[in-house]
Amino acid sequence: MKEIRKIIFYEKYFADFYSELPESIRRKIAYVFDIIRQTERVPVKFLKHIEGTNGLYEIRIEYESNIYRIFCCFDSGQIVVLFNAFQKKTEKTPQVEIKKALKLKDDYFNKKLKND
Fold it and tell me: What DSSP string runs through 79-96?
């Protein structure tokens, strides 16, 4: 299937999180990443804009009774940049995780501007 989007990691935040997960959850994440890469309109079940932010999204993964969130943004339209991730333990997404993701997003675009 044709790739519509490319997924890249910013720094090592997501990779560190991912490396600690069991193989079953990694497979589910890979499945969701394939949907994001290949689907024109990604269902909100898998990718949702974080209200009150300027372009911050969360990739949503549910596996058995566990919920995982990966923060990301779009760059140049078709590139999805992954930031921090966490296992969700409460109904609401923790503000500390959102703030961390927003800081990483700012860092990413500031570094990109310096390198252009």
Answer: EEEEEEEEEE-SSSPPHH
Amino acid type, 84: N
Beta bridge partners of 57: 49, 72
The pLDDT of residue 100: 97
Mean pLDDT by 10 residues, the chain (116 residues): 92 96 97 96 96 95 95 93 94 92 97 86
**Residue 7's closest CA among 44, 34, 41?**
34
Closest CA to 29 of 72, 91, 78, 89: 72
Among 65, 27, 32, which Cα is nearest to 48's? 32
* Phi-psi sector, 100: left (phi>0), alpha (psi -120 to 50), beta: alpha
**C-alpha angle 18-68-107 in degrees, rounded to nearest 5:** 65
What distance in Å separates the CA atoms of residue 67 and residue 24, rounded to the nearest whole number? Answer: 13
